[in-house]
Amino acid sequence: MGKVATAEAMRFMVDCLKAVGTAARAAEQQAELLIQADRFGHPSHGLNRLEMYVNDIISGACKPNNEPKVLKESPSTAWIDANNVLGATASHYAMDVAINKAKQTGVAWVTVKGSNHNGMAGFWAQKAADKGLIGMAFTNTSPLLAPTRSKQSALGTNPISVVAPASQGESFYLDMATTAVAVGKIEMQRRKGEPLPAGWAQGPDGRETQDADLAFETGCLMPLGGGERTSGYKGFGLAAMVELFCGISAGANYGHHVRSWSHSGDGGPANLGHCFVAVDPECFAPGFGDRLAESIQHWRQLEPTDPDLPVLAPGDKEKKAAAEADVKGTVSYVKQQIESSAALAERLKVKPMEVEME
Amino acid sequence: MGKVATAEAMRFMVDCLKAVGTAARAAEQQAELLIQADRFGHPSHGLNRLEMYVNDIISGACKPNNEPKVLKESPSTAWIDANNVLGATASHYAMDVAINKAKQTGVAWVTVKGSNHNGMAGFWAQKAADKGLIGMAFTNTSPLLAPTRSKQSALGTNPISVVAPASQGESFYLDMATTAVAVGKIEMQRRKGEPLPAGWAQGPDGRETQDADLAFETGCLMPLGGGERTSGYKGFGLAAMVELFCGISAGANYGHHVRSWSHSGDGGPANLGHCFVAVDPECFAPGFGDRLAESIQHWRQLEPTDPDLPVLAPGDKEKKAAAEADVKGTVSYVKQQIESSAALAERLKVKPMEVEME
């Protein structure tokens, strides 16, 4: 592992994005999104993604200095063309529209087409929660999920995120892929040389596999719930629901029409679809924050099956990781990540990231 | 099994509800909700539930002839007090408010307190879809779900439903409990004397159990995803999200404060919370229905792992069951159900249901 000062990791990401022509503000917003994932202990959505964004900018597939625009709106909805900007630029723009409308009418529903990968969905839901609203974010992604009974993938890992502010400094934070696990977990088992648990992924014959290499090459993740007997069709249904909210509503690429996840800057824009929702809890019963805080605290205090493993409320793991990273002022990366970042620095003629190897 | 003409099952349910003082329209609406579940092949939410409603009316826990009212509203939201009416009355009222507001502003978000069990969530999402909208329905229910790592239950089976109209006579129909399975599936294994698959339910020690009797007595279902290793915390997170939308937002009973599912008409109102959402797809990209139909048809045509088990789109199973029931003009009930309905008829001095035993 290599340890990097959080500010230095940010500096490096901003420099790389600027080196390929991204204006300062767009580069900073994208870097803030990525560093948040690294702080939250979700490295698959952090620095790890930087090179993909850089490649898409170099190839012209992403146009970071374009401007998103509203194509159609009503008092509580907006349809936005991201105009192929970076995912962070598009998502800040769209969630700002949602927040403003929700403050007026109580709820806003915004869909976006023509966008790019917008990182950790929770970052966007949190943006609305920071304004006192219930925030929700959904996005489609490249096909990786095999619907129940199918040999082939047809949907992405299509995340659902809901974040809401509670009293006493608490908050509800849910950010989940609708596959059983994200592809990063398969990669981790592969690196460790360990087999996969049941219900994670399929081999090319459409049957569950415990072989991490085969699963990685096949690229057919099982939906949340695993096989049919354990209700995997519900995870498939949720992934399909996210696609309905995103690509299908926004008129972006959708489902099997989204480009492959192994794409590496070979042209064509991603044209991803997102959906952002903001709801003002003040429109309903007074005391929302108190009831939410009481629930969160109740869950944590439930008697655990294993006394060494206390019950966690949604988001507890992420908040703990972020707090630890912030105390240290550093984020940590695997050796492979440190090496590929050094190579990227050289390729882009950017000052390499200062790393303390552990 | 016993076969009953669909109209006769309806007649019986309406008569029972009227026998305990329910006005005709409320009785008919509740019976329509129940018969839909029987037609859809979800008998746990059909006639099976009738006696619970009847008992709650007799005990005074439910007041079927009250009227729901809007407590607070904005252009796109409403907070409703169901005033303790039957779930069907409350839900028709609330979804009508949502539909009208969504037609005006593009989206509506409505929460309800003071309600009773409102049956199959999909019935309510379908009501909005029938008006050309994307309909969503959520409700809290009695505690049965054990959060990941917990020995105790803390949330209900809290369903999520999303229904949307598509072109070519297609529609997207998702209606799912956020537990791995509904309690009815445990009952079915118990009746058959078969063990439970992994990931369904816990015993009193908090460990997974394959013992259907023990699982039924313990009443701790596992969330969608099963154990922690297979991401059961996502199912827990979804159940918690539903509670946030329902009881927590609406100021109804919530989570562990909701009365036990084994309650049998002993007084105190349920005070359940629901949430209804309607979104007008016309507010976004033209061609929504075409893209949705194309997706649904694509999923069905995916190459299946087992050639005898074609891939199903969300809702295909329910639509097939309903079509078959409608061709026959009958619904079927297990012997136990037939017997308890006969006893109920006698208790309420209502004409018994005409049954053809098979």
TrEMBL record, chains A, B:
A GO molecular-function descriptor: oxidoreductase activity
Domain of life, per lineage: Eukaryota
Keywords: Oxidoreductase
InterPro entries per UniProt: Mal/L-sulf/L-lact_DH-like_ah (IPR043144), Mal/L-sulf/L-lact_DH-like_NADP (IPR043143), Mal/L-sulfo/L-lacto_DH-like_sf (IPR036111), Malate/L-lactate_DH-like (IPR003767)
Any matching Pfam family: Ldh_2
SUPFAM superfamilies: L-sulfolactate dehydrogenase-like
Family the UniProt entry places it in: Belongs to the LDH2/MDH2 oxidoreductase family.
Protein name, UniProt field: Malate dehydrogenase
Species in which this protein is naturally found: Chrysodeixis includens
